[in-house]
Amino acid sequence: MNIVHTLLLILCGILAVQLLFSLWNRTKLPLLGVPDGNKDCTADHTPGHTVDRTKGTRISHINRDAKTTKTKISVLIPARNEQIHIKDCVESVLAADTEGIQLEVIVLNDRSEDKTGEILEQLATKDHRLRILEGKELPSGWMGKSYACHELAQQATGEWWLYMDADVRLEKTALNAVLTTAQAQQKGLVTGFPRQITATWLEKLVVPMMKFTIISHLPIVLVRGSQNPRFVAATGAFMFIHRDTYKATGGHEAIKADLLDDMQLARAVKKAGHPVTLADVHRHTRTRMYQNAVEVWNGYKKNMYEGLGRSGFLLAGVLVMYAALYLLPPISFLIGMFTGDFKVVALGAAGTLLGMLVKRVADLTGSHPFWLSLLHPVSILFVIAIGISSWLGAVTGKGYVWKGRHYH
Fold it and tell me: Which residues have C-beta within 8 Å of that of residue 406, sequence separation ≥ 6?
């Protein structure tokens, strides 16, 4: 057996282990609204209930006595140039079931240059639970979103706060479901990745890779089961945090210069000794993060290098690993077909199939279609290209542009 055969055999072995890990890891993702995260339960259309698949019985998740004081939730939405999203976002929050909940919704218009402010003013006249704040000028040393979240925190009066992005939509059961999960852990943070709506090709190829990275690499049991802040995943699109936990972390003021405020806040929660739960929230939330290929590219470019601690060596290691695991097998398959080396063909095909199966397991978590997993090598190519662009943006000093602001 020559060195090429040996290398491909090793890669197939690694991919087989990764597939088994992904299958196991997916079962450990807690369901939102189920206190113990039981994967045999799934939400039906009745607020605060699930259906047991094995018995067909309805299980109540509402542990709050109707006679007791309602739990107050503050939904906090920073909005900058969100005219295409903000109306549907706010209306989805106001339409959510609030059994056992006292709701306040605070939206900060972060110096928008479009019609976001006008739309918010119209919405505020229709529902007294909605309050609008006007963002102040960004102080030196602050990232834009972090300062907006900080301003919102100064006005929130709820026991639990839900930070959510303006491109997120809540289903009717979302608030009751997340409160059930949060109250089971008493304090801390509950976060999760909304179901991703994708339309353009680059959205379809790149956006689902967030879930792929988590399902195939991050031991989900250690997000809640370990106090080590390295084992954490979070998204600013959906962050449900207890007010005492937020204060214990120092809030956004303690991470004001960090580009990835969501990950840094989640790490700060762990460091403060409070629990973090990464839950399956895709049945209760949905989002279209980006509207076109340019937004996809710039959004991931802004986050990739920063997400790896601004370490060029770590980024290079990740990109080389991705190329070896997910690009080398299909390339070897094509070369084997051309040269007539059928052992290379067989091993290349096996490695390619295993990589696609790993992607399929992750896609199931986000309800993405089957055919996307067949394009996994193409997705990897774009991830590698964006990763290199992200590194170049930092080392050349050109930085990143997002929502009209320039970041270094």
Answer: 399, 400
Q: Do the beta carbons of residue 346 and residue 4 sit within 8 Å?
A: no
Pairing relation of β-strands 160-164 and 238-242? antiparallel
Rounded distance, CA 401 to CA 408, Å?
Answer: 9
Which amino acid, residue 133?
L
| Segments in 103-191 forming alpha helices (H) | 116-124, 144-155, 174-185
Contacts 24+ apart (CB under 8 A), 220-227: 220/25, 220/28, 220/29, 220/278, 221/28, 223/276, 223/277, 223/278, 224/30, 224/275, 224/276, 224/277, 224/278, 227/270, 227/273
Give the residue ranges of the chain where pLDDT is below 50.
40-62, 64-67
- Provide the CB-side half-sphere exposure for 341 (13 A, CA): 15
Alpha-carbon distances, residue 296 vs 217, 265, 302, 342, 343 (angstroms)? 22, 23, 10, 39, 39
Tell me the pLDDT tens digit for each residue of 82-141.
999 999 999 999 999 999 999 999 999 999 999 999 999 999 999 999 999 999 999 999
Residue with tokens 């006008």: 118
Residue type, 109: N
For residue 234, the SS3 value is: coil
Please list the residues that pair with 59 across neighbouring strands.
Answer: 50
Residue 67 pLDDT: 46
Instruction: Name the residue with tokens 């290098």.
Output: 305
Enter the pTM of the model. Answer: 0.88
Phi, psi of 61 (to 5 degrees): -105, -5
Phi-psi category of residue 315: left, alpha or beta, with phi > 0 → left and psi -120 to 50 → alpha: alpha
Residues contacting 400, CB < 8 A, separation 6+: 259, 298, 301, 302, 390, 393, 406, 407, 408
Percent share of the chain, pLDDT over 70? 90
Give the burial class of 226: count Cβ atoms within 10 A of its Cβ; 0-12 exposed, 13-18 middle, 19 or more buried. Answer: middle
